[in-house]
Amino acid sequence: REFIDETERSLHDSLMIVKNCVKSTRVVAGGGAIEMELSRFLREEALKITGKQQLIVSAFAKALEVTPRQLADNAGFDATEIVNLLRQRHSKEDGLWYGVDIEKQSICDTYAKGVWEP
């Protein structure tokens, strides 16, 4: 019974993703790219804040990096190295859409590669 319940939830989630894609044709780069870009932005903004709020914003920025770290880890890569490469790339002007490249065990412009999230 648990297997059937889980299958039903998975199918429902999949249908809702398709529904959302049909309703909105906007996408962002996948592979952890959007999370890394948001993390970069928040880290920069945290430097302008004082007190406990700075720690909170910095902690949230770090938490956003869990997605690309987990993608790299699940693919068997050195997650620390991948996240560091992403941080370096996102610090450059052309780094906006860079995420984890599963095929080359590195990073790439996931938007250009067609790895998108609705």
Structure description:
By secondary structure, the protein is mainly α. It is 63% helix and 10% strand. The strands form two sheets. A two-stranded antiparallel sheet has the order 1-4. Strands 2-3 form a two-stranded antiparallel ribbon. Helix 2 runs antiparallel to helix 3 (52-64), helix 2 packs across helix 5 (79-90) and helix 4 crosses helix 5. The longest helix has 22 residues, at 2-23. It starts with a helix and ends with a strand. The mean pLDDT is 94.
Quick rundown:
With 118 residues, the chain is mainly alpha-helical. It contains 6 helices and 4 strands, in the order αβααααββαβ.
What is the topology?
Layout lengths: L1 H22 L4 E2 L3 H14 L5 H13 L1 H9 L4 H12 L7 E4 L4 E4 H4 L2 E2 L1
Give the helix level as a range of percent.
Answer: 55-70%
Major beta-sheet overview = 2 strands, antiparallel
| Structural class by SSE content | mainly alpha
Q: If strands are numbered along the chain, what order do they take across the biggest sheet?
A: 1-4
Secondary structure: number of strands: 4
One letter per element, helices H and strands E, the order comes to HEHHHHEEHE
Mean pLDDT: 94
Total count of helical runs of at least 4 residues: 6
Quaternary structure type: single chain
Portion of residues in beta strands equals 5-15%
Low-confidence stretches: none
Give the CA-CA distance, first to last residue: 32 Å
Q: Sum up the overall morphology in one term.
A: globular
CA radius of gyration is 17 Å
